Amino acid sequence: MGIGNGTKSALAGRVFPQFAFTWHYPWVRRGDGASQVIEPIAMVAAAPREGNRTTIPNEDSQGFEFDETSLFLRNRFPGFDRVDTGERVDYGMRAGYYDDKGGSMRILVGQSYASAVNPNFLPGSGLEHRLSDVVGRVTLTPTPYLDLVYRFRLDRASLALRLQEVAASMGPSNLRLGLSYLQIAAIPSIPQLPTQKQISATLTTQLTRYWSLQLLETRNLGNAVVPVTAAGTPLTTVGSTETLNSGIAVTYRDECIAFVTSLTQSGIVNGDVRPGTSLVFTIVFKNLGDIGSTLAAF
Question: Residue 278 domain-assigned?
Fold first, then answer.
């Protein structure tokens, strides 16, 4: 139906059946003061290949990242506008070492193989070929007051490093400091996507049983990015100031509900989007979802 400003109103939906079967078999060995675990894991998923219709705009599934957390998900897209179509097999290995004093080391490495290329995964995503990139994570917890994490994604053919993140979280539960460094390698076939580097820091303190305060900042160490379409056509330039994101958040959280008030300053430049500050209030209902509203933007 036509509307005076030239836009159209339409109703679209989908029926998307999907089958998934996950198998894992942990081997546990008890040693002197510690336990070791080795666990192979595999998942088979099958769904129609035509599940993404052009009548459904992609608004909530654009922030996609293929890593070890999304490897064994049935739908690796965030949101509901895009679905993970076709047939694929995900496989990997988990291993862990746990000592009786509370220290541990955990490793996960895996990969995915699809029966056909999914055009919804863009170049550089790690899933643009039938055989995916290799993803993994190494977590070291020598004490309850220190967590060290290394995440990576390796090229499917050369095993060259495509993405890496080094993170540390330290301190007691009521005063926790987090630091991380992220590096995303350039894509040789797309010169508009150079190497990206950034560092982040967060400080979280538990003020009372229900109230907490968080400070955060993310700074850019790399270059500007020019996003591209699936065909490799450049879109609009994306840049940033030195500070990508910084802010403060105050949270009230109990057994049923949470209230989050955050004041955030963004340094991202994307088309008509310019650096600015926003005040956002969010209500989170346990097991139901969240409702958010921007109170001010300037």
Answer: yes
Return all residues near 84 (Cβ < 8 A) that are at least 6 apart. 18, 45, 47, 73, 74, 75, 76, 77, 118
How buried is residue 256: exposed, middle or buried, by Cβ count under 10 Å (0-12/13-18/19+)? exposed
Q: Are residues 207 and 286 in the same domain?
A: yes
Structure tokens at 28: 């546990």
Q: Is residue 158 part of a domain?
A: no
- DSSP one-letter code for 120: T
| Tally of domains within the chain | 2
Print the domain residue range for 57. Answer: 19-132
The rounded distance, in Å, linking the Cα atoms of 169 and 147 is 5
Strands (E), the chain: 19-24, 27-30, 34-46, 88-99, 104-114, 134-143, 146-154, 161-170, 175-184, 196-206, 211-220, 238-253, 257-270, 276-285, 289-297
List of the chain residues with pLDDT < 70: 1-10, 51, 63, 188-193, 222-241, 269-274, 289, 296
pLDDT in tens, 164-221: 999 999 999 899 999 999 998 887 666 666 788 899 999 999 999 999 999 999 998 8
Interatomic CA distance for residues 298 and 296, integer angstroms: 7
Cβ density class 171-193: b for 16+ within 10 Å, e for less? eeeeebebebebbbbbbeebebb
Q: In this structure, is residue 153 part of a structural domain?
A: no
Determine the Cα–Cα distance for residues 109 and 134; give it in Å rounded to an integer: 7
